[in-house]
Description:
With about 110 residues, the chain is mostly helical. It has helices at about 1-5, 20-25, 25-35, 40-60, 95-105, and strands at about 75-80, 90-95.
Amino acid sequence: xxxxxxxxxxxxxxxxxxxxxxxxxxxxxxxxxxxxxxxxxxxxxxxxxxxxxxxxxxxxxxxxxxxxxxxxxxxxxxxxxxxxxxxxxxxxxxxxxxxxxxxxxxxxxxx
Length: 111
């Protein structure tokens, strides 16, 4: 699968731009230059289709209809994985809030 191809550095984290092949179907372009690049699994293709719909809605309308707003009272994040679909939206509450609190303490929000 594509996720396995990314290997160790991205095994438990989301690496910068790792979402781009899922959003822009660029896996096919990459495979032209690197035949070792594996095709997406069926589950990854389904996730990619869902993500393309979300990003398309965001660029067209400024919102993603299925996503709840992120607010201080309701700090929800979407857990994007192969489990997502337009009808299944795994949510995380206060995900990694300790990092947000650290940034608040050092005044990051002031800039």
